[in-house]
Amino acid sequence: MSNSKWVYSFGGGSAEGRADMRNLLGGKGANLAEMSSLGLPVPPGFSITTELCNHYTANNNHYPDELKAEVDAALAKVESAIGVKFGDADNPLLVSVRSGARASMPGMMDTVLNLGLNDETVAGLAKASGDERFAYDSYRRFIQMYGDVVLGVEHHHFEDILADHKDDKGVALDTELEADDWKDIAKKFAGKVESELGKPFPQDPHDQLWGAISAVFGSWMNDRAKIYRKLHDIPESWGTGVNVQSMVFGNMGDSSATGVCFTRNPSTGENAFYGEYLVNAQGEDVVAGIRTPQPLTIAEKELNATDLPSMEESMPEMFKELCDIRDKLEDHYTDMQDMEFTVQEGKLWMLQTRNGKRTAKAALKIAVEMANDGLITREEAIKRIEPNALDQLLHPTLDPDADRNVLGKGLPASPGAACGKVAFSAQDAEDRVAKGEKVILVRIETSPEDIGGMHAAEGILTTRGGMTSHAAVVARGMGRPCVAGAGQLRVSYQDQTLKCGGQTVNAGDVVTIDGSRGEVMIGEVKTIQPELTGDFGVLMQWVDEIRELKVRTNAETPEDAETAVKFGAEGIGLCRTEHMFFDPARIIHMREMILAGDVDGRKVALSKLLPYQRDDFINLFTIMKGLPVTIRLLDPPLHEFLPTNDDEMVEVADAAGTDFETVQARAIALHESNPMLGLRGCRLGIVHPEIYEMQCRAIFEASAKVSKDSGETVVPEVMIPLIGSKREYDIMHDMVQRIAAEVSAETGTQLEYLTGTMIELPRAALLAGKIAEHAEFFSFGTNDLTQTTYGLSRDDSGSFLERYQEQGIYEQDPFVSIDEEGVGELIEIATERGRATRGDIKLGICGEHGGDPSSVIFCHKIGLDYVSCSPYRVPIARLAAAQAALNAEKLIDA
Amino acid sequence: MSNSKWVYSFGGGSAEGRADMRNLLGGKGANLAEMSSLGLPVPPGFSITTELCNHYTANNNHYPDELKAEVDAALAKVESAIGVKFGDADNPLLVSVRSGARASMPGMMDTVLNLGLNDETVAGLAKASGDERFAYDSYRRFIQMYGDVVLGVEHHHFEDILADHKDDKGVALDTELEADDWKDIAKKFAGKVESELGKPFPQDPHDQLWGAISAVFGSWMNDRAKIYRKLHDIPESWGTGVNVQSMVFGNMGDSSATGVCFTRNPSTGENAFYGEYLVNAQGEDVVAGIRTPQPLTIAEKELNATDLPSMEESMPEMFKELCDIRDKLEDHYTDMQDMEFTVQEGKLWMLQTRNGKRTAKAALKIAVEMANDGLITREEAIKRIEPNALDQLLHPTLDPDADRNVLGKGLPASPGAACGKVAFSAQDAEDRVAKGEKVILVRIETSPEDIGGMHAAEGILTTRGGMTSHAAVVARGMGRPCVAGAGQLRVSYQDQTLKCGGQTVNAGDVVTIDGSRGEVMIGEVKTIQPELTGDFGVLMQWVDEIRELKVRTNAETPEDAETAVKFGAEGIGLCRTEHMFFDPARIIHMREMILAGDVDGRKVALSKLLPYQRDDFINLFTIMKGLPVTIRLLDPPLHEFLPTNDDEMVEVADAAGTDFETVQARAIALHESNPMLGLRGCRLGIVHPEIYEMQCRAIFEASAKVSKDSGETVVPEVMIPLIGSKREYDIMHDMVQRIAAEVSAETGTQLEYLTGTMIELPRAALLAGKIAEHAEFFSFGTNDLTQTTYGLSRDDSGSFLERYQEQGIYEQDPFVSIDEEGVGELIEIATERGRATRGDIKLGICGEHGGDPSSVIFCHKIGLDYVSCSPYRVPIARLAAAQAALNAEKLIDA
Questions:
Q1: CB A727 to CB B809 under 8 A?
Q2: Phi, psi of B88, deg, nearest 5
Q3: In this structure, which long-range contacts are made by residues A492-495, counting pairs with CB atoms below 8 Å and at least 24 apart in sequence?
Q4: Could you tell me which chain B residue has the CA closest to the CA of A675?
Q5: What pLDDT is stored for residue B219 in this prediction?
Q6: Model confidence at B125: pLDDT above 70
Q7: Residue B2: is its pLDDT beyond 70?
Q8: What angle do CA A850, A853, A857 make, to 5 degrees?
Q9: Measured between CB atoms, does B787 come within 8 Å of chain A?
Q10: Cβ-defined contact of A686 to B803 (cutoff 8 Å)
Q11: Cα gap A732→A730, rounded to integer Å
Q12: Residues of chain B positioned with their CB less than 8 A from the CB of A672
């Protein structure tokens, strides 16, 4: 790829880039340029494009020839804007070097500050700033950061030197160290780098700069970045930009400060300025969560009941300027902004703005309020919500009346309640989850290395760091409840304990966290269902006005059906009748049926199941109040109902009034090499029609009764599973019609119903045109269709699926998001052919993909009538359907 | 369906029908019409169309209103041609009523002779013929046949009455009975019918006629007919015609006779008139094989070393007339004819002609000779041979030098040698075969009820009946070796023994039959490979000039490869490398590899397998002499190489130098719910690349060596199994290239090879365009593609496949003939997309369908480059490919 321009300058009230160039400049660089153009105080600098990152990766870590000249020119511009020179021994220009990808990747990419310092320029900085202690502190910070990030000298080496120095001097705090201490420490740091690497710490500022740029580009391909991208579906091809910017210092004494703020509350969505800052600190100190920061406003201070002075109080002028900037930026971007700022000796500088990450609750509130205020349209409000994020709102929260054995309190960093066994390391968390346990990850503070464990955990608890700490930001992004900075609690990794007020929690003990209140409880606490009103209700109403796809649910129990209706389900798209046979009172008859030697024996057993099954449907039809209910006839192979070990077989034999040998022989006879591809679905209906006949009878007797009782006609949809050819379907279709006619005659009821099939085999998709001659609806069973299209058993894919995702063979787990290329094409073929035969054929999807937003968008695109998903995914599907109708591309976190 | 004409008349030198109306009139009716038009002596009659059969079946066994008038008119025509009246008490017209389907279905359909006789007309027949004995014999035959076939009175009732009567009279033979005996017996027969049915035997000839017509149409749907159609792929929709024809009598004394003859020898194909006849007999006597018939010609008489006088000797004028008709019909039909004739008191009548069934050997000889004589073209000769019939010629025959313990001798009714355990009933034969045994079905004579057992058996032996008996005709049609009419042998169903000359064979004992010589041997006799020269060689040469599809073989052993080359294979299309690991010397290393805890352990074990694998390929490349060899890398899941029971696990542990627990744990870890859809094929290559690397190394080291040694470049085709996506293929492709480059560098050889994949998953077919970006060939793995497209495990389908075929859901077993609608469409999609990306991509098929003629025709139609099949199917595929090139429709036995 050839590009005429690799470097874009900004600062001093103008810029070469714009906010809409984020793909090229990365988010940070694009927004720095935009802020410059808006006339906001941005330290001058330049961005190197993401295309250069791709060029660098593709060319074995080499740069194009023309880059050096472009960087030199941009650097000269900065020098001229500030009036200081890079490498000037008297008054050096110092720069930060940061990554800036298209999508925000917090903590993933590496940063170097104070670049340009060396043994000479540090003296110049001391002179120019008039603060020798600051200059040498800055120098040692630079050596430490550069040594770690660029040169790969592990940071504990530096921490050891610092700790030894403090011990020698008999002091505890960094603030107790003086200029000479830092001078000494900087020398020791540089010496450590030399002894570790066998060559001296680089003194040439240009060498430093190129080293840092390469480190940023190189870090795009490090493991942490790869994992983050995998978790967030970010393509490798996007690349990162590099931002080189003149340094400003928040650590030049008490008239300096640094902070992070949000134009609205990112946790609740409340329209209140919100943030944290630290006096006399560099920006990394706030984000890294090492010092507990101060509140930005008086209101926050009161809310958090802290004594730390707010910026509103201690720096009122700076605060006012920042408030103006807040208004300007939110108006300009029409979205909640997450900003970084630094005050250097009484002068405010803006270092970053971006659309702020927020909880689902906050996202809802902000979107609804902005739309109501006319700042954005309702359509835009709908597009702003990541459908999967709703999941946070739909799950139970803690019952406020339940007893809580509160161990301690921290910051409410990410809402929702979570409960699980304590794990003190990311690895332990992953190991426990792999064994099927639910886990709360408990850390003093989290770091990018913990990403895997955070993802595995139900919730996250840290004892250090604020609302913008790594743990808080990442947890909100993942939708995991999080309590951060719970300073009363003591974690010992050594002892594997969490202690507070004389109580001790060991690894593996159960705790509950309430991310909305910041509380940590011992044991499990009772939960309550979420409220689905307020902002959620308003948005979902807008959503329903816009979406075209109907949303149904997969449910067979009254509980699930009720939950789904509450969540807005417009019918049942999949009622799996087999689940109804596992109840102990029923499975015995099911087994009797399977063990019977002939049709008559099976019919006797089936006649005992009929009343149960009929009651099941009466319940469902009553709950669904005339909404469509699609009932799938028995699907799994019969051996699933038989036990596999001898003891249980003896029990079953006793219960069924037969002997062990009979049960064993039947189990052996029914054994299959590949049950997924065996005698199941409609094959059972062909071989043992009496089973389906009983089920149809139960359906029609129930619909006749509920129609009569309620006065509202119930229109069940009878679904034949695993159809692979037209005649197979036709035989089953005739059977359904026949039983309906029988029940109609017996009950004197005019029955209304539809008969249709699942399309879950490639052959059924191809033959859809013929099958549709009689089938009145198709429901795509995407689980099985994925299995057969890929030749991939979901149960057995665990041994290699991860490897496949790592190697980029599967970009997505095909059982989570529809594989549009393969499975999707079959669905499209079936849709076209089905409709060609029968224009009004009803088309839906009932695999687990029905609740996956990108799959919902696909279903909308190809014109299905509905999706069906598990009850808790119904609102997600509704929102995704509306976004699809708005022709929204998949939203990338901005 | 409405048709203006249901009935077609023939006879008296003209006819309303023609030979090319066989679809409408059935084969027999069409040919009777044709013979009439040719001026041959055909007793007048009429045919009711096959469309009427469909109408009758579709309308719940009711006739259209207009039929009666058409039948009456046609009957009147016959009456006027013969000059006698139906039901005339003085000189009655008698008719036969026979079925006549589009395809010959020997013995399947029912026949009634002498219809029109009743208590009155029998006297008229006696008077008119001047032979009372003949008249009453005819009457009792009619009552018996009509009673059995039309009225459903079981034939043993009649046989018992006849036997009792003979006992009473103290005679043994029918010929010893006189007119009064037959009169008495006829009365008893009629009485039996009345006592069985509760109503008298029908006396009205018109009632008799309609009863017989309905019985024929009804018999189209009887079980025997259904089974025959299923075995021979005859659609139910074809229907049967009914032929009503004035009777002629071969049983009117010694100047009367009846016979069956072929224009050429149907067993050897020799251009010699060939047939059998019986003096003073009705046609059924010859075909049913109840009396052993006499030879037609002197030559035959000498060949069979019989004393029975030939027709050539005893009826020289009739014989000469028949010879003229033979010449006329063969010239007219340009194919070998199978004719039935009757001589009634010195007058020859032709009752049937049709293209004669023949052995594969005869078919070849006749086709080649007719083409060489210019009677037909070479193309026509090729179309004449049913590819599957070649199977008879390709299998071993008995070694002429081997010791033969000859038990007895019969007629060489269907060629080829077969060996198996004796079963004395069709049921026993089927049961034994179901248990995996090979069976020779031994019967006194066979009947249509035995079809299932005949199909199951390796060969058939009867002790009664001639070359045109049921057993002989059906066996030739099925390609089963058959010895018929072995009159020296005695079968006792009671004792379950076969005896001859003091030797006894019990059920389950092994015998060998030689259908080419008519010999029956005790025990197993050594066999030799077939000669592939002569007519076979000539025809295959013509075939090779015409066909466009290449034919390769599936082979991994040197033996198979050598056989295939001899059969004309043009390469190996599928070498399954896993078969090479089951040898005891190797499986131990395979297991070591599987049990190894890490990559290094696996590599050590693989390094021990490398020399074996390399030698395998050296052998194959050497045998194939530069022909292409496609090698599929390891495909099955690793657990297939581990034992499943504890004892074997202990052995394996010992052999592999580990403990039982390790072996057991590994087996459990590798267990899969659906191995077909699990960790196999290229998934192994992705997860354990070292396995495929070893295999590629073996391939390339072998090809380097053989190329060097032979001076001829070996171009292996490395095939990656179970590809489902592009990136998966690309990773594997890169691996192959890498190993090739390594071996090339190490050996200093320029390697030539292709890398490609199997298309055996629906997703691979859909993504073929992308996969073809790097893949140089596709081989359709139609076994797995059928399994995944249908969602049907071949191993587990047995429990319902038969039911599916019975219910017409699957017209063909999709694992035998390619499902063109579903699987076929995927193959077409992949073909189009693959070629769109890579115009010269090599396309072939390597599933078992590669040897199935109709599948070969499909492969030709969609333009594949080659098919690959098992060695013995190679000539069949070659012939099918030529027929496909000739645009031949699937040949139906004429």
A1: yes
A2: -70, 120
A3: A493/A424, A493/A425, A493/A444
A4: B674
A5: 86
A6: yes
A7: no
A8: 85
A9: yes
A10: yes
A11: 5
A12: 793, 795-796
Residue B406, classified by CB atoms within 10 Å of its CB into exposed (0-12), middle (13-18) or buried (19+), is: middle
Partners of B814 on chain A (C-beta within 8 Å) are: none
Global pTM value: 0.79
How do the residues of chain B divide into helix, strand and coil, expressed in percent and rounded to 5? Answer: 50, 15, 35
Burial of A298 (0-12, 13-18, 19+ CB in 10 A): middle
3-state SS of A746-780 is: HHCCCCCCEEEEEECCHHHHHCHHHHCCCCCEEEE
Q: Six-digit token pair at B676?
A: 């077909």
Instruction: At A810, list the tokens.
Output: 């599967």
Task: Name the residue among A731, A792, A809 with its Cβ closest to that of B727.
Answer: A809
Chain B residues within 8 A of A795 when measuring between CB atoms: 672-674
Cβ–Cβ contact A678 with B under 8 A: yes
Percent of chain A at pLDDT > 70 equals 97
Percent over 90 (pLDDT), chain B: 68
Note whether B392 contacts A: Cβ–Cβ < 8 A. no
Average pLDDT over residues A780-792: 96
Distance CA B306, CA B418 (A): 26
For this structure, is A470 an active site residue? yes
pLDDT confidence of residue B402: 84
Select the highest-mean-pLDDT range: B473-482, B654-663, B674-683: B674-683
Residue carrying the six token digits 């928040």: A250
Which chain B residue is nearest to residue A792, measuring alpha carbons?
A: B677
pLDDT at B284 over 80: no
Average pLDDT over residues B615-634: 96
- Is residue B281 classed exposed, middle or buried when 0-12, 13-18 and 19+ CB atoms within 10 A define those classes? buried
pLDDT of residue A874: 94
- Given a cut of 50, whether residue B1 has pLDDT beyond it is no
**What's the CA gap between B321 and B342, in Å, rounded?**
12
Rounded Cα gap, residues A596 and A607, in angstroms: 13
Q: Which tokens hold the place of A769?
A: 């045109």
Chain B residue at shortest CA distance from A811: B727
Torsion angle of alpha carbons A696, A701, A706, A712, nearest 10°?
Answer: 70
**Out of A687-696, A837-846, B670-679, least confident range:** B670-679
* pLDDT at residue A483 greater than cutoff 70: yes
- For chain A, give the longest Cα–Cα distance: 103
**Can you give the pLDDT at residue A798?**
76
Rounded to the nearest 5°, which phi and psi values hold at B625? 45, 55
Q: Tell me the C-alpha distance between A238 and A331, whole Å.
A: 28
Residue B760 near residue B683, CB atoms below 8 Å: no
* Distances, alpha carbon B457 to alpha carbons A25, A130, B430, B442, B467, in Å: 78, 107, 8, 10, 19
Q: Is the pLDDT of residue A269 over 80?
A: yes
Q: Which of B680, B733, B809, B826 to mutate to test the interface with A (most CBs of A within 10 A)?
A: B809
Structure tokens at B13: 């030198």
Q: Does A799 touch chain B (CB under 8 A)?
A: yes
> CB A762 to CB B822 under 8 A?
yes
Q: What DSSP string describes A349-381?
A: EEEEEEEPP--HHHHHHHHHHHHHTTSS-HHHH
CA B714, CA B702: separation in Å to the nearest integer? 9
Q: Please indicate if any CB of chain A lies within 8 Å of the CB of B803.
A: yes
Tokens of B571: 């390469």
In tens, the pLDDT along A108-131 reads: 557 899 999 999 999 999 998 899
pLDDT at B343 over 70: yes
Contact B762 A795 (CB under 8 A): no
Separation between Cα atoms, residue A413 and residue A471, nearest integer Å = 8
